[in-house]
Design brief:
About 85% of the residues lie in helices and about 0% in strands. The protein is mainly alpha-helical.
């Protein structure tokens, strides 16, 4: 029953948002706007709950020794610093200069460092994929190499040609692939929700 209710809510929400995109109607637009605002509130509540759970999980680490204590201090101190900057009296919330400074001076460099590490892991994955010698790995590496070449920071006519080609690849073939994936996922979700609502199981196929 719980699965059917959840699937029904998801299906109804998706239908309302889809109809709002296809049909111009003030009442439908108002309903879709209310649904979107409700989803934003639910996402915010989930984020607050997740942050509280994370803090509660690391609080016992303050009393323990070793690396766990310092990990808890860094995590809880960073969360407290961001909260103080955004919730202090006279603050403008997410647009406050102190919050913007913390994001640009701390969070962005940390995220950049993580992405740099991801690049190194990707190089290792490319090496292992090529050593296996599968066709899928070869196609992936060739496509990634082509995109890296197209995104090289070159100037002049050559750089402009590469930038134009990269924009076309992003807007046409890659966008088509992503649209196909999204359409396929939407169809699968709709079929699964319909099967749950109608009580159709694998034995009924």
């Amino acid at each position: 029953m719980r699965r059917s209710l959840t699937a029904g809510l998801a299906l109804a929400t998706g239908a309302i948002l889809l109809l709002d995109l296809l049909i111009i109607n003030p009442s439908l637009e108002l309903l879709a706007g209310g649904v979107v605002e409700l989803l934003i509130l639910l996402a915010a509540a989930a984020a607050v709950g997740g942050a509280a759970t994370l803090a509660a999980h690391h609080l016992p680490g303050l009393a323990s020794g070793g690396h766990d204590r310092w990990d808890a201090v860094m995590l809880l101190g960073g969360m407290g610093l961001i909260l103080m900057a955004g919730l202090r009296p006279g603050s403008n919330g997410s647009s406050d200069p102190a919050v913007n400074w913390l994001i640009s001076a701390l969070l962005v460099p940390i995220a950049s460092s993580l992405f740099a590490l991801v690049f190194l892991f990707l190089l290792g994955a490319v090496r292992r994929g090529l050593s296996i010698g599968t066709r899928e790995a070869t196609i992936t590496v060739v496509a990634a190499s082509v995109m890296v070449i197209l995104l090289l920071p070159l100037g002049g006519a050559a750089g402009a040609a590469l930038a134009t080609t990269a924009s076309w690849v992003r807007d046409v073939p890659l966008a088509a692939v992503f649209r196909g994936l999204l359409i396929g996922i939407a169809i699968l979700v709709s079929v699964s929700a319909a099967r749950i609502l109608l009580g159709v199981g694998s034995t009924d196929d």
